[in-house]
Give the backbone structure.
Amino acid sequence: MEQPLTRHINTQLPPMTLKEYQKAGGYAGVTKALKEMTPGEVTNLVKASNLLGRGGAGFPTGTKWNLVPMDQNQGPKYLVCNADEMEPGTFKDRYLLEGNPHQLIAGMIVAAYAIQAQTAYIFLRWAYKKAETALRKAIAEAYAAGFLGKNILGTGFDLEMNVHSSAGRYICGEETALLNSLEGKRATPRTKPPFPAISGLFGRPTVVNNVETLCWISHIVENGTEWFKALSLTETGGTKLFGVSGKVKHPGLWELPVGVTIREILEDHAGGMLDGYGFRGLLPGGASTDFLIEDHLDIKMDFHTVAEAGSRMGTGTMIILDDKTCPVAFLQNIERFFALESCGFCTPCREGLPWVEKVLGAIESGNGRMEHLDILKFQTKYLAPGNTFCAHAPGAAEPLQSGLNYFYDDFVSHINQHKCPWKS
Amino acid sequence: MLSEKEKTEILKEVNRYPYPSAACIDALKIVQEHRGWVSDEAVKDIAHFLHLSNEDVEGVATFYSRIYRKPVGRNIILLCDGISCMILGYESIYEHISGKLNIRFGETTKDQRYTLLPISCLGDCDHAPAMMINNDHFNHLTFEKVDEILENYK
């Protein structure tokens, strides 16, 4: 089984230097793209590969790039790498950033070339200190080797690359909020349209891609679309980083073909539940995805198959709910996070999420009433897409609506017993 | 007043963007790096330096969780309260630290040695529970391990 993204990552060792990575075949895609292909050919190749964005939404990467105006002499354009990983339960980008920063830089050079951006920013989560050190070192190496700066590889293409370490806030992961943050402002999302590809950073055409997405680019240029498609078990090409956290025997992260079943990840890789713990449900791709339960274990991890089961593949890092963890407390934790991280710009999100958290807190502490369940159900509609300015609150509503559905009896037993049945 | 060193560092960031105002967050972080936190006076000084209004800088300073608008201790303990850390028992780690240092979230010890704060998911979910102290990460926390780690931060 091929593992292109993690092949050169060894967590026991420092990340590869540029020389080591080049020796192992890295940067070959950069040379090929810049010397043998036009920008349009690179975009078309990525489009033909059907690479879907790995940040969680699964938007086709080539389609995003295709929206960027390509007229000559029209002023600056930007490429931004979204490395603001902060989705609860998600730890995949951190692994790629710390493990092989040159893979990301190579992908970013090719992506910037495709859209003819001359400046690239890596918007990095504040807390990822080790990644920051590794990235800064790798970028300096790339400048020294002529992969960044003026006239890269003698092709006439220029690219400056900067690391922007953020100051904390989940909403910075929303691409338009990220752009405001990069401009030094409060990270409130912007109206779309115009989409960032037309008017993004500093009002200029900008592409924002996730770390894992960008890590693919150089590999796809080097090996072609057929190779990429053959890596997966479904129509979505490639492999994907899948992770499991919670009360399983071996929590961890693995690069596996897209389309592997949840059961395989959970049982073969994570080793199944810890002794003495039973499985109750899981969030397949971070805190903002709907619960799946035992019935869903044989579905394939792919954007459309997980969507058919009523959830989202999201970031592909699963959080397992076991039978010794209270589902109400589990949801209260998640909703507290979303309430705290609301940017406060639109009313349903700013007011609705703290309300949800308070109601869950009342139920969890034994002060719940049956009408509280109606409030929670109402909120899942009130916070639905279309009622809020961005996807933050709808994301928060996903685990709540499915949690109410699958664990309804647990909510009722809290209310009837006037306490949390999980607490002695 | 911003020190010469702070000004030099801020200007270096300013040069990486097309407009000086874009370096607002970087400027706040630089001042905090030198002084531990960002005072009202520092907000005004940054605003003046970057040609922004005081209110703009204040709005940015209070938006971001990692900009401190109140004095903090010499060491900042950031305990992950994310869902994976909750499942693996961060709450008991919190009670342990809180009892040991006699402070709750948001408080600083009397000797100014530690400030205790919650932080959202640190991306270390497969090694939960996790925390940071200053710029250092720790995981697989136990009471004994926490006691040992805390001793190293004077």
